[in-house]
Design a protein that fits this description.
Two copies of one chain form a homodimer. The first copy, chain A, folds into two domains: 84 residues, Leucine Dehydrogenase, chain A, domain 1 (Rossmann fold, 3-Layer(aba) Sandwich), CATH 3.40.50; 125 residues, Rossmann fold (3-Layer(aba) Sandwich), CATH 3.40.50.720. The first copy, chain A, has ten helices and twelve strands. In chain A, strand 2, helix 2 and strand 3 form a beta-alpha-beta unit. In chain A, helix 1 runs parallel beside helix 10 and helix 6 crosses helix 7. The termini of chain A are far apart. The mean pLDDT of chain A is 97. Chains A and B meet through helix 5, helix 7 and strand 7 of A and helix 5, helix 7 and strand 7 of B. Strand 7 of chain A pairs antiparallel with strand 7 of chain B.
């Protein structure tokens, strides 16, 4: 069998175009405040991409670049200012922060209504309790890809590899809300391949290059690869796609699979946040 | 094989005695405000038991009984008063509430520091994010029973049947934090018995009498039964214990298994809350 390869770039472009159309119908455009602290080159690239796509979708780019040596108190004051600014409908604190800062404490200052990364305790609690709220972007993007291919989740056995707060744990909650049976695996899981072989839908967010091979995939399974790693032979994911695609029914490529969905869902969240709390 | 039957009453008594000893060492006893709205007979019995055990552990019983026809605003005002009262170190809103009240909105008024039921969005988020906080009592009680029998959770395959906000979902989080592989099943799960048979530790909180029979249990498994149902032939749980105990390694009885742990853990949470935010 040769698996269907999902074109995440195309799906993400579709989401961005839809968001842009909907933004154009709003009386006031949403305003996204990306906050970059310091000069980490990778973070700078991520933030630049977010700002560019935000602007392309017709949203206001309310970026803040803060010096790397900023104190916790000064950073908190900036977040508080953005939190109370009615022009700012979404706040994104680019991680990681310089090590002298308490990232969790800063994130908690973001009101859940503006928490477009879905990382505060309240957003996390709302997701776990099944209440409306803003969800972390990457797992939300995986759900859009699953819907794009018409995956039937109700009653399906889904396995999530990885239990990060950013991907694995919210992923499991989103699948559970769609009435899937959900198994969460991680580095301590015994016989990972055997557990993964039970999956109709396998989401891999372990952060280990090519962790999942053909021995870990049920024939016909849908395999979504959240990992991205730079190797001597180019980029690869957490899934050994070259072998897995011979067995799986659907796979996502790396790059061009789940990756492009993250910023697309950030735009979607920013739109959602602005709709729920419009600028008055 | 004949399973070990955990004596939940004895374990709960041990927890209560330990809490009482620790309360006695505090400069000021913790104060638990149970809030009962209306006259539901079952709720009245639960609250009476909580108050009695609270008093027996040396804590202050700061009970409030509110009329069933109270308005949302008036109930909110009572919760706010308890929230700001430094003598009150824990607040428990007995559920269910009369249908005209918005229970979730009232619960959200409880500060996470006093949320001894662990049901607010912030407590739920703290659990999901792996941060310190107060946890729902029943799943916490299951964890104590597992520790009591020396269950090895790291790497174990655990299956939780049921996905309620009160038990199933927080249960899964607690098991995950202990490095178990965790599967969450529910009413839409296909071939529930087959999934349950993969479990080294099986926690059943489905609310369906005798849902889990011997065909759903791996030989030697640890089976914890959170259900309790009144039938013509007396009380029973979600597990058909008479047949399952021939196969399982460990079972909890109903009554006298998980049930008694809930109030014991409420006392533990009230102690923890008072320690973290002592009366000044």
């Amino acid at each position: 069998m040769n698996a269907l390869v999902i074109d995440g770039r195309a799906v993400a472009a579709g989401v961005r175009a839809r968001v842009a159309r909907e933004v154009a119908t709003l009386p006031t455009p949403p305003g996204l405040a990306t906050v970059l602290i310091g000069d980490d080159p990778a973070s700078a690239i991520y933030v630049r991409n977010k700002r560019r796509q935000c602007a392309e979708a017709g949203m206001r780019d309310l970026h803040r670049h803060l010096p790397g040596e900023i104190t916790q108190e000064a950073a908190a004051a900036v977040v508080d200012e953005l939190a109370s600014d009615p022009q700012v409908t979404g706040i994104l604190l680019q991680l990681p922060l310089p090590p002298h800062l308490d990232a969790a404490a800063l994130i908690e200052r973001i009101p859940p209504e503006k928490d477009v990364d879905g990382l505060t305790e309240r957003s996390t609690g709302r997701l776990a309790l099944g209440r409306p709220g803003l969800r972390p972007c990457t797992p939300e993007g995986v759900m859009v890809l699953l819907d794009e291919i018409g995956a039937v989740l109700e009653g399906a056995h889904t396995v999530v590899v990885g239990r990060s707060n950013l991907v694995g744990k919210p992923m499991a909650q989103l699948l559970l809300q769609r009435n899937a049976t959900v198994t969460v695996c991680h580095s301590r899981t015994r016989d990972l391949a055997a557990v993964c072989r039970t999956a109709d839908v396998l989401v891999v967010a372990a952060g280990v290059p090519r962790l999942i091979g053909e021995d870990a995939v049920k024939p016909g399974a849908i395999v979504l690869d959240v990992g991205i790693h730079r190797t001597e032979n180019g980029l690869c994911g957490d899934v050994d796609t070259d072998t897995v695609r011979e067995i799986a029914g659907v796979v996502t490529p790396v790059p061009g699979g789940v990756g492009p969905m993250t910023i697309a869902m950030l735009l979607q969240n920013t739109l959602t946040a602005a709709r729920e709390n419009p600028i008055t």
